Task: inverse folding
């Protein structure tokens, strides 16, 4: 049996970080089993679904790099109405569904009664049973189609994450599968799609646990094999509450991109939200796929930890090739008015500073002073720029000028003799030199920084 999983987002806004984690686990499960990972767009809610949001979701999935196997053939529910109608007709034909002619008022009365008595909402008035006389069909009511849920027994499954789950059938309603206008309802579409797509493992958020018994019963009535289900617990914010934009949480996957998170780091971090492989924190997606098993997913919710995300991001920055990082930060530098001139090459700058940055914005920030001297912070000036500093820097510029070959080593070789000559400690050279050349005290080794910036530019900056 080929394992088939799917990610089935509803395109009603942005791509939520929880959605990406669901997609990631579905994807990893399929890849681990050499199976297929399929994408389905659940866009039947015409009032809330937009083409824009479909694009945002697809761009988000592409950005993190979760490749789905039906790229040329993504399933859109809105393109499948004929098929849903066909299955409704089949279920009516086989006696697993029936027309219900209840009016709004009747349903309202039932709801009130059910609330009072704590029973299933619909009293099954139109459900055909042997020996039962149904009411007369009213002339002015367009019927809905209801599914004939079994009256006794339980609907149970062994959830791949949560273990045994069971619902008594008597608590489940005869749910509506087609509305009066003929349009199919949510749970019904999901079932028909999962069946037609041959989905073997449904991996989704645990907000769908209550839908699962309904879906299982419909699948059984269709004579379909019931897939395995694994329900993933929620991701909570750092305060342990539901993640929400309104509470100021970063939610949309694009916002993490704007924060300078690398796609691989995002996936690495999300993989660890609710899943563990020993103490491993930092790993590649190849390793994740190799290790991934739903039995290692925790059944309880996990919490966002931005500090950890940034740490993992920093680790990924370290192992990302410099030219890839250059492509990722070029537009960030351009936004600061910096266009890469011939020297220094951005990749060389990145090689020197990449260990210092935990996100791409910080990385861009670390590159700025190689191209443009910054205005030093007052606190740095107060701390490192004494009365003699300006003259001392000019004296040191003279030494720099005398170098024939402009290399880190040669620049370095000037430091000790100069300090001895001046009777100062290295701090009195290094820090003012950073301020004079870079405009910031926070740089890597100053000899390497000067070497990259270039002789003419360094002398110009000190002497200006
Ligand atoms: N469209 C549903 C959602 O976005 C997912 C349904 C499913 O995975 O079965 O929550």
Result:
């Amino acid at each position: 049996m080929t394992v088939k999983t799917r990610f089935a987002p509803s395109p009603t806004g942005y791509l939520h970080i929880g959605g990406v984690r669901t997609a990631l686990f579905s994807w990893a499960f399929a890849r681990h089993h050499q199976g297929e990972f399929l994408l389905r767009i659940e866009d039947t809610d015409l009032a809330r679904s937009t083409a824009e949001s479909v694009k945002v979701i697809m761009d988000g999935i592409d950005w993190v790099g979760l490749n789905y196997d039906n790229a040329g053939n993504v399933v859109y529910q809105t393109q499948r109405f004929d098929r849903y109608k066909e299955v409704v007709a089949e279920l009516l034909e086989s006696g697993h569904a029936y027309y219900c002619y209840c009016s709004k008022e009747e349903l309202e009365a039932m709801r009130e009664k059910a609330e009072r008595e704590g029973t299933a909402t619909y009293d099954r008035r139109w459900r055909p049973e042997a020996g039962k006389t149904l009411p007369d069909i009213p002339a002015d009511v367009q019927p809905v189609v209801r599914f004939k849920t079994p009256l006794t027994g339980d609907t149970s499954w062994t959830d791949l994450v949560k273990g045994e789950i069971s619902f008594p059938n008597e608590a489940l309603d005869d749910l509506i599968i087609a509305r009066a206008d003929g349009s199919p309802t949510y749970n019904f579409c999901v079932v028909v799609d999962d069946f037609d797509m041959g989905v073997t493992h449904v991996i989704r958020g645990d907000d769908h646990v209550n839908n699962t018994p309904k879906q299982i019963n419909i699948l059984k009535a269709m004579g379909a094999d019931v897939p395995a289900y694994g329900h993933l617990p929620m991701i909570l914010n750092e305060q342990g509450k539901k993640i929400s934009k309104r509470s100021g949480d970063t939610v949309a996957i694009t916002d993490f991109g704007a924060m300078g998170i690398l796609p691989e780091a995002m996936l690495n971090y999300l993989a660890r939200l609710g899943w563990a492989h020993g103490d491993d924190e930092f790993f590649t997606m190849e390793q994740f796929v190799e290790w991934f098993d739903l039995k290692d997913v925790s059944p309880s919710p996990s919490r966002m930890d931005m500090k950890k995300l940034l740490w993992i991001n920093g680790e990924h920055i370290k192992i990302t090739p410099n030219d890839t990082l250059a492509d990722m930060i070029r537009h960030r530098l351009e936004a600061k008015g910096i266009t890469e001139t011939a020297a220094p090459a951005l990749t060389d700058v990145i090689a020197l500073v990449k260990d210092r940055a935990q996100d791409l914005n910080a990385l861009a920030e670390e590159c700025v002073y190689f191209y443009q001297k910054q205005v030093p912070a007052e606190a740095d000036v107060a701390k490192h720029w004494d009365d003699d500093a300006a003259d001392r820097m000019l004296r040191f510029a003279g030494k720099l000028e005398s170098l024939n070959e402009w290399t880190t080593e040669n620049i370095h070789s000037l430091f000790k003799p100069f300090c001895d000559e001046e009777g100062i400690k290295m701090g009195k050279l290094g820090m003012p030199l950073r301020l004079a050349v870079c405009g910031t005290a926070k740089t890597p080794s100053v000899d390497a920084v000067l070497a990259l910036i270039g002789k003419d530019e360094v002398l110009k900056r000190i002497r200006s």
Remarks:
- The longest helix spans residues 17-32.
- The radius of gyration is 32 Å.
